[in-house]
Structures are given as C-alpha cells and as structure tokens.
Amino acid sequence: MFKNKIFILIVSILIAITLILTAAFVLWNFMEKNNQSQDPAGQAQDAVASVKPTKPPTAEEIKANTAFVKDILTNLSGGGNFIKLSLAFELENSKGKTEFDSLLDSAVKGTIVQTLADMTSEQVQGSKGNDLLTSTLMNKLNPMLHEGKIRQIWITDKVLQ
C-alpha cells in the first residue's frame, strides 16, 4: 500500500513537470514568433543580417556572382496595369549563383511573376515600391537556396503601364 502511494506521487510529479515544460516550450515559441518582423523590409534585413560577414567582394567577384533576369512582362493585381521588369541578383558565392541559375527558368521566374501578380501598381511605384518588391522577392527566393543566399537585388529596368 505504501509503495503504491509513492509510485502515484512520483508519476504525478513527472506529469506536472512534463506539463510545465510543455507550457514553457509553447510560450517560448509564441514569443519568438511575435518578435519576428512582419513587414517584408524587416524580414529582408533579418535575412541579410544572418549572412556571414566576410571581406568585401571585388567588382570582378560581384560580376561573376550576379545573375540577370531580363524583360519579365506580367499583369499587376487590381486592374489593367502591367509591368515590364529586369532584375539583377547578386549572390554571396559562386555555388549560390550556380544553384540560382539552375532554378532561374522555373522557380525564380515563377516566384517573380507570382509576386508581381499579388501587387498593385501603387505598391510598385517609386523607391518605396522598389524596396517593397526587392525585399519581398528576397524573402521568397532565399529559402529556395541552400548553397548561398541573395545578397542584393537590383532593379535594372522597369516600365509600369
């Protein structure tokens, strides 16, 4: 009888500890999600901050690790507007550029067209529109890359009609 009470007491304590640890884990994850930035510009800054600092690349390295996407023409959301866009993607290393080039015709162009289809002409106008577009693209494309990350996206040509 005495052993049975001790066993029940130990099991109760273990269950209580497990519940406390589970509640702490859920609370920790909830607070981590709240601390993450919700706007695309903040998320892009967080992604850039996670890139390992190295020596500044030379102009030749930047040129070698830059991929170009030219003349994407697609409709924008909310009306009869369309945009023609050319972009330059600066990647952090040659492995990242190789991986990016292999995804260029499928995932990268598809993501660009999908992102533009969700945006209105007012959202892509001006320098704030350029920042919103490039940060949104960076947030969507960087998770696809495993060998290197996108360091910078440049809008090299843009026509909004």
TrEMBL record:
Keywords: Cell membrane, Cell projection, Chemotaxis, Cilium, Flagellar rotation, Flagellum, Membrane, Transmembrane, Transmembrane helix. It is a single-pass membrane protein. The chain crosses the membrane at residues 6-28. InterPro entries: FliL. Pfam families: FliL. The keyword Membrane applies. It is found in: Cell membrane. Belongs to the FliL family. Controls the rotational direction of flagella during chemotaxis. This is Flagellar protein FliL. It comes from Paenibacillus hexagrammi.
